[in-house]
Amino acid sequence: MLNRRFLRACSFLVLLQFAACQGIHELPFGLCSSSDTQPVADGQWFEDCSGDSADGFTDIVRAKSEVGPNGVATTLEVRELPAVFMVNQKAVKMEHAEYLWAVRFDIGNDGRDAGDLELSISKFKSESVPTRAAILDFVQVDVSMVEGDYLDHICDARLAVHGNQLRIAANTNACKGLEQITTATRVSYFTDYNNGEPDLKYDYFPDE
Q1: I want to staple 4 with a disulfide (CB 3.0 to 4.6 A). Which of 19, 66, 82, 153 is the partner?
Q2: Distances (CA, A) of 41 to 27, 109, 111, 182, 194
Q3: Cα–chain-centroid distance for residue 4?
Q4: Residue 178 main-chain phi, psi, to 5 deg
Q5: Distances from the Cα of 55 to the Cαs of 39, 67, 114, in angstroms?
Q6: Can you say how many angstroms the Cα of residue 151 is from the centroid of all Cα atoms in its chain?
Q7: 143-197 pLDDT tens trace
Q8: How many CA within 13 A on the CB side of residue 16?
Q9: What are the start-end ranges of the H helices in the chain?
Q10: Is the pLDDT of residue 13 over 50?
Q11: Cβ distance 187 to 33 under 8 Å?
C-alpha cells in the first residue's frame, strides 16, 4: 500500500480534468452512452459499449452504484477479467500506476473535481521484479477526496470479485464524506492500464 496522498502517474487523468462528471443513462449493449446529464438511478445497471477498449479488463460493459443509509457500493462489469495479471512491469516507472478501476461521484453536481469523492481499485509499481498475481492479491482499494490532480485517502474500501464484476463497497461510519452521495449525485466510471508503452489503455463512461 502506498501513495495515500498521490498524484496519479498516468496521463489519463488529464482527460478527466476536461471532462465534466456526468449522469448516466441506460442504453442497449453495443451503443455508447451520450453526454446527457441525468441523476444516478440507485441500483440500476447502465450499459456501455462493448469493445471500445482493446483490453477486456479495461473495457467497461456495464456499471451501477447503490446508495444506502450505511454506505455506498459500486459494481463495474468488464468484458474480461483474467485470473492473473502481470504486475511490477519492467517498462513502468517505480510508484507509477499500472492498473485502475474507479468511480467518481460529483459532489455538488457542479462538474468540478474539487471535493468530489472517488472509490478506486488500483495498483502502483512497488517492486523491480515483474510477477503474476490475482487481482485480490495486489490491489489497494480506497475512498479518496479529489483535490485537483491529487487524491486524499479517506479510508480503505472493500473489494469483491464475481466473474467479470468488481464490487467496491465502503461504510459511511468509517468514511467521512460518503453521506454526501445521494441518488441525485452524478457519476462517472473509468479504467486505466499502463504497461509503460506510449499509448495508455482506458475506458470512460459515460463517453464524451
Answers
A1: 153
A2: 13, 15, 18, 10, 32
A3: 16
A4: -60, -25
A5: 29, 30, 30
A6: 13
A7: 999 988 899 999 999 999 999 999 999 999 999 899 999 999 999 999 999 999 9
A8: 31
A9: 12-18, 135-138
A10: no
A11: no
Cell readout for 34 is 451520450
Residue 40, C-alpha cell as written in the block: 444516478
CB neighbours of residue 23 within 10 Å? 21
Question: What are residue 104's phi and psi, to 5 degrees?
Answer: -120, 130
> Which residue is listed with cell 499509448?
199
The amino acid occupying position 80 is: E
| Radius of gyration of the chain measured on its C-alpha atoms | 16
Q: Whole-prediction pTM value? A: 0.84
Q: Other CB atoms closer than 10 Å to residue 195's CB: what's the count?
A: 15
Query: Three cell numbers at 17?
Result: 480534468
Question: Whole-angstrom distance between the N-terminal and C-terminal Cα of the chain?
Answer: 32
Place of cell 480534468: 17
